Amino acid sequence: xxxxxxxRPEEHERRPAQSTVARALHSPPxxxxxxxxxxxxxxxxxxxxxxxxxxxxxxxxxAAVDLAVPGGRVPAAAVAWVGVRADRxxxxxxxxxxxxxxxxxxxxxxxxxxxxxxxxxxxxRFGYGVSSQVKHVMVDRTRARLRADVPVTGSVRLLSEAEAxxxxxxxxxxxxxxxxxxxxxxxxxxxxxxxxxxxxxxxxVAVHQDHQGxxxxxxxxxxxxxxxxxxxxxxxxxxxxxxxxxxxxxxxxLYRFLLSVDLVTKIRLKSRPIDEPIDLVLENPxxxxxxxxxxxxxxxxxxxxQAFASRTYGHAEPVVLDVRDARLPENAGRYRISPQGxxxxxxxxxxxLDVDTLAMLYLGGFPASTLAGIGRIQARDPEAxxxxxxxxxxxxxxxCGTDF
Length: 404
Ligand SMILES: CC(=O)SCCNC(=O)CCNC(=O)[C@H](O)C(C)(C)COP(=O)(O)OP(=O)(O)OC[C@H]1O[C@@H](n2cnc3c(N)ncnc32)[C@H](O)[C@@H]1OP(=O)(O)O
Known about the structure:
Blueprint: E1 5-7, H1 11-24, H2 32-41, E2 47-52, E3 55-69, E4 72-84, H3 93-107, E5 112-115, E6 129-130, E7 133-140, E8 154-158, H4 161-175, H5 187-201, E9 204-210, E10 215-225, E11 236-245, H6 248-260, E12 264-273, E13 288-295, E14 298-301, H7 304-309, E15 319-324, E16 333-338, E17 341-344, E18 351-354, H8 355-362, H9 368-373, E19 377-379, H10 383-392
Parallel strand pairs: 4-5, 11-12, 15-18
Antiparallel strand pairs: 1-2, 2-3, 3-4, 5-14, 6-14, 7-12, 7-13, 8-9, 9-10, 10-11, 15-16, 16-17, 18-19
Helix pairs in contact: 2-5
Residues 24-25, 79-84, 89-95, 115, 117-119, 121-122, 125 line the site of acetyl coenzyme *A.
Domain N-acetyltransferase: 4-149
Family: Belongs to the acetyltransferase Eis family.
Protein name: Acetyltransferase
C-alpha cells in the first residue's frame, strides 16, 4: 500500500487538491471562474491535503463561523470539501485528514466543528453526532389555500439583480442567529453559495417588508418546468433554496407569496426546520407533504469544557456526565452540569456517553431520555435522565438553515 503525508497544500497545489475532491463528489474539476471564487471561500490556512509524493489524493477544508448554541454562540469550523480519490479510499486517508483538522480546531480555540454529511455512516467514528434534523416538504399548490386567519403583517417584493446580491446578506446578518444550529455566513459563503448560484441557476429573490417598512425575511427560489412529453401541462415547480424570516408574520407572508405565483403546481422546500408550520397555515394541511426527514447539521465538540461553558442550561438539579473521547482524550472525564453552568468534577457520574452522543444532546435536538432509550447513554441513575432533559432542552429545535 502506498504511503501518504498530510500537510497544507502549497499555493500551486490547492486547485489540484480541490479538484480531487470535486472528482470524489462526482463533479468536474473547477473551471477558472469557479476557482477564482473558491480560492478565497476555502482559505489556504484552513486546508489540509493528503499527498502521495506531490500528487494530492484527498483534502478537507473549513471556514471560520460562529455557531449558535442555546443561550449563546461559539466559534466553530464549518467543514466542507472532504474527499479522497476513488482509487485511494479505505486506507486511512480521511481518518488522517480529519484527525489533524479536529486537533487544529481545538488548538485554534474553536470548541466545535460542524458539517453536512454526504452519507450518514461516515462521521460518527470521528466523534461527530447528528445535532439537527430537517424536513423536505412538497406543497401541492393545486390543493393548497392559506387559512383566512393567517396574519398579514406586510407585503412581498421581488428584488432586482443588483439588490438580490446585497440585500439578503444584510438581512441575514441583521436577523441574527436566532436558533441553535444557525451559523454566520462569511463573504466567501455568499460569493460561492449565493452570487454564483444566482448567476448559474437563475434564482430569484423576494423580500418581505412589514407595515413599518422594515425588511424582515427573504426567499431565494427558482421555477423548474415539470412538463414532459407525456404531461406537457404539468406546470412549474418552485424550488426554494434559502428562506429566512425574522418573525412568524414574515414567514407567513413569504408562504403567501410563494403560493400566489402563477403557473405553479408544486412548491418544493428543502431542509426546513422540523417545527416549521407550512402545513398548519393551509386549509388542507395534507397539501403539504413531508417527503423526507434527514440528519442535517453534524457537530463535533473539540473542546468539551469550552463548549459546555458557552451555552446556558434549563432549570433542574445538577447532573454529572462522564464523557468518553478516544480521538481527543483531553475531553474525556466528568462534567457537572447545573443551571449555573458546567465544570469539571471528580463526583460520581450519573450518565455516561460518547462524545458523538454528546453532540446530539448539546444543541438540545435530542433529549437524554430518548438517547438512553436507544442505548446511546448509560444511566447509572435513571432519575438523572429527567434532569438532563430539562437542563439541555432548547426553546426551539435546532436548525442550521445554511448549506455549505
Ligand atoms: C463534509 C463533506 O464534505 S461530506 C463529503 C464526503 N465525501 C464524499 O462522500 C466523497 C466520496 N467519498 C470519499 O471521498 C471517501 O470514501 C470518504 C471521504 C467518505 C472516506 O475516505 P477514506 O479515506 O476511504 O476513509 P478511511 O479509509 O479513513 O476510513 C475510515 C473508516 O471509515 C469507514 N468509511 C469510510 N467511508 C465510509 C462510507 N462512505 N460509509 C461507511 N463507512 C465508511 C472505513 O471503512 C473506515 O472504517 P474503520 O475505521 O472501521 O476501518
